[in-house]
Amino acid sequence: MRNRDRTPKTYTRLTHPLVRDSRDEPFRRASWEEALDRAARELSAARDAFGMFSCARATNETNYVAQKFARVVMGTNNVDSCNRTCHAPSVAGLSAAFGSGGGTSSYEEIEHTDVIVMWGSNARLTHPVFFQHVLRGIRNGARMYAVDPRRTSTAEWAESWLGPNVGTDIPLAHAVGREIIHAGLVNEAFVERATTGFEEYAALVEPWTLSLAEKVTGVPAAAIRELAHAYARAERAQLCWTLGITEHHNGTDNVRALINLSLLTGHVGRYGSGLQPLRGQNNVQGGGDMGAIPNRLPGFQDILDPTVRLKFESAWDTVTQPHYGLNLTEMFEAMEDGTLRAVYCIGENPAQSEADTEQAVRRLRALDFLLVQDIFLTRTAELADVVLPATAGWAETEGTTTNSERRVQRVRRALAPPGEAREDIDIIRDLAARLGHDFAYADAEAVWNELRSVSPDHYGMTYERLERHQGIQWPCPSTSALEPPFLHGRLWEPDPSLRGRPAPFGIVRHDPPVDLTDEEYPLRLTTGRRLDSYNTGVQSGGFASPLRRGEYVELSPEDAERYGVVVGEEVRVTSRRGSVVAPVWIDTGLRPGLAFMTMHFPDEVDTNALTIEANCPIAGTAEFKASAIRIEKLPLVTVVPYVR
Amino acid sequence: MTAIPLGVPRRLVEFTLDGEEVRAVEGATILDACRAAGKEVPTLCQGDTLTPRNACRLCVVEVAGSRTLVPACSRRAEPGMEVRTGTERVRHSRKVVLELLASSVDLSTTPLVAEWVKKYEAKPDRFGPDAARLDEEPRVDNELYVRDYGKCVLCYKCVDACGDQWQNTFAISVSGRGFDARIAVEHDAPLTDSACVYCGNCIEVCPTGALSFKSEFDMRAAGTWDESGQTETTTVCAYCGVGCNLTLHVQDNEIVKVTSPHNNPVTHGNLCIKGRFGYQHVQNRG
User: Fold this and answer.
1) CATH number of the domain where residue A626 is located
2) What distances in angstroms separate CA A13 from CA A39, A287, A420, A546, one per listed residue?
3) pTM of the model
4) Is the pLDDT of residue A3 over 60?
5) Which of B88, B91, B81, B155 is nearest to B122 (CA)?
6) CATH code for residues B11-132
C-alpha cells in the first residue's frame, strides 16, 4: 500500500529551460537557444502529425498567438484546450441552438430575476463570487431551485432541492418540459416566432410523465411539477449550470435539454432571462473565442465558411485547412495510433486532468516529441523532452482574459518573473521565427489589435476602452457604443428579417451513464471541486488554507454504516479501471449509493484513475461525473485523525 | 423597452451646504454631497459597499432644525435643508469621538486618523495613563489572517460583510455588551473552529487594520512593512471563470496583500479564499 503523505506537494517555479536527449535520462539545464533550436528541429519533423494544447489559463493574446502558430506555422487545425474536459458541451449546445457559444446573460441580471435554477452546479463553493450575485437575487425576492444529486451548500439557499440520480438530467428536463406543455404554460408567441421543431419536441417529451420521471430520476413528481410551474410562470428566469451537466458522455445532449426549457418559456434574449453556464477557468471562454479550438477561427468564426477562411488567409498570408482539426480527446486517440507524434503543450496538465490518467500518461509517453511550456514542472512536464519556463499569465504579463459573462478584462503585470522565465507570446514568436515565420508583435496590445481586426465581436474593445469600462462584454462591434448585457435579443424582434435563424429545439434522448453500477461496483462516484482548492492542485496547493483536509472518499451516513467504516479510516476504492486508497469522510448531503471525490490532490489520491473515459461524441468531454465503484475495508485499519 | 432597465427617473435635490447652494441626486446622502463639493468629512464606519451603521459618529454635521447632530453618512439630502459641516459643535463632537476612540483603541494603523487628531485638536491622553484601553492580544490562529481586536472600533463593517450584505456566511457577530463588546465567532472559538470560509471580505472593509493579512501583520512586526514602497496593480484572478478583479499589493516583487476594487461590476470588492489568499504559487521561486 502506498504511504500517503497528508501535506500536499508544493511546486516551485521553473526558472530555466530543461532538455533531455532521451526519455530515460534526467532533465538537464539548457540555454534558451539550445531548447528552442531543439524544439524547432523536432516540430519541423512532425509538421503533418502535430497537435497544440493551448491554455485556458493563459491570456487571450497567448491563445491567439498559439492557435496562429498551429494554423500558420504548423498548418494544422489540431489545437484545443482543457475546455474539452469541462464546458465544451455548453459551447457546442449553445452554438447549435443560437449560433454562439457564450452564456446568454450577465451576473448583474441574476440580481434582478424572479426564478433562478442552479442545475448541476454547486456555485456556492465553486463560483463563490458569482453566488454573491445569486444571493443578491434571492434577497431581492427571487426563488432559487437547486438541481443536484448532492444536497450541497448551494441547495441550502434553495426554495426547493431536486436530487436526481446521477445521469438522469435529460428525463428530469423532459418531464419539466412536458409539464409546461400540458399545463398550458408554453410561451406560444415566442415558440411560434423564434424556434423550430416544437412539434417534434412535444412528441419527444410526451412519454416523460411526472410519475415516470419520478421512477427514473428519483425526484418526487410534486417537486418536478413545482419547478416546471415556477420556471414557466416567472416573468424572468435564469437557468445556470456547471459541470454536473457537461461532464457526462452525453454532455451536449444534457445542455440541449436545458436550452429546450428556455425556448419553451421564452426565458432567453431578455434582460433577466437567460442561460448561464459557469466556466471553470479564468480564460476558458476566451481560449475558445480566440480560436484555440479545432473548429473555429478567432472570433468564434467557423472554419468551414469559405469567406471567413479567405479573410484569415489574406490577414495571415497563409493557407488554412478547410476542415476541422482534432479536439483534445481525438488528439489523445491519435497518439495511440501514431498519427499524432509531436505535441506542444502550453500550461496544461493532461497527465493528471484527463479521465483515466493511466491511459493519458501512456499515450503522452508514446509521442516522438513532447514540448511543455509551463510555470511549474507538472506531471505532464515530467514526461516532456523539452520544458520551457513561462510567466504566470495573470500576474506577470499584460493582456486580457474573458470571463463567464463574456466580459473581456485586462490582466496586468505586477511581478517580475523568476529566473529566465519568459512570456508565452515571446516564446511562441521565437519558435515561429526558427520555423520561418515572422510573428513580430511589439507587445500584447499589438496582438490584441490584430485580433480586433479579424474578429467583429471584439472590434470595439480597445485596451483604453477595456480600462475605462472595467471590461467589456462581447459582442462589441463598435468603438463608440456598448451592446446590451444579454445575447440573442434578436429572437424577440417583431420583424422576421431581423430575427435571424430561429433556435431549434434539441431532440435528445435519455442515455444513462456508461459505467453501470452492479453487484460488483454498487456505488455511484461523482466528482467535483471544493471551496479552497482548484483542479489538479498545482496552484492551490501553494497556500496554507485552514479549510484544506486533503482527499477523502465522501460517503452517505447510511453507506458508512453499511460498510462499517468511520471518518478517517482508509479504504480501497476500486472502479473498473483503477484502484486507489483514500480515507473516508461522511457527508449528510449524499444519499445512499452515492459517493463523492475531488480531483484536487492527484499526487495523494489519483481520483482520475477511477473515472471513465466515455466521451461525449459531439464535444469530446469525458464522463467525470459518473463512475461505478466499490469500497473495501483494508485488512489493517489505520485511522488518520482529522485535524483541521 | 430599453435593453437595460433605466430605473425610476431621479430628481435633483437642492439644499445649502455651508451657506452654498448645492444639488444632489435624490437619494444621495449628505456625505455624498459633501464629497462631491470637495469637503472633507472624516469617516470610519462608513463603507462604499455597505449600508450605513451610524456606529462611529465621526461624520456628524449640523442640520438646521435638528436637535441633535446628524450622521452625514446615512442622512439623505432633502430639499431646502441647511447643512453646516464646520461649526464649533461639529468640531467639538468629532474631537471628543476621536479622543475616546484613540484613548481606548490602538489606531496606529488607521489611515488618516493622525491628521484628524491634529485637525480637530484632539488630546487622547487627557484622560490620563489609567484610561481604560482594550489592549487585546492579537489572535493568530491561522496562516491567512490575523484578528487584532486591540484595534477594533466596533464599526460592524466586518459583521455586515460576512453577514447578509455580502458573504452570507454569518461567521462573526458582536458578543458582550458595553465596554466588553467584541467581534467574535460563535463561542469565541479560534477561527479554525468557526464557520469562517476565509474569503477575507471582512479584511477588505476593516477601517483600522484590526483585521489584516498575516503577511502584513508579520511584516509590520518585523518592521519591514513599507506601504510607500508598494505597487498596486489590478489584474484578473487566475482561478475559476467568474473573472474577479484583484488588486495585487506588491513589495520587493512579493505579493503582500490582495484587495479588490469596490466599484467593480464583477466583485463589488468581494473575493473568495482562492482569489484573496491563493497567490503564493507564483512566488514559490525555489
Assistant:
1) 2.40.40.20
2) 21, 24, 11, 23
3) 0.92
4) no
5) B91
6) 3.10.20.740
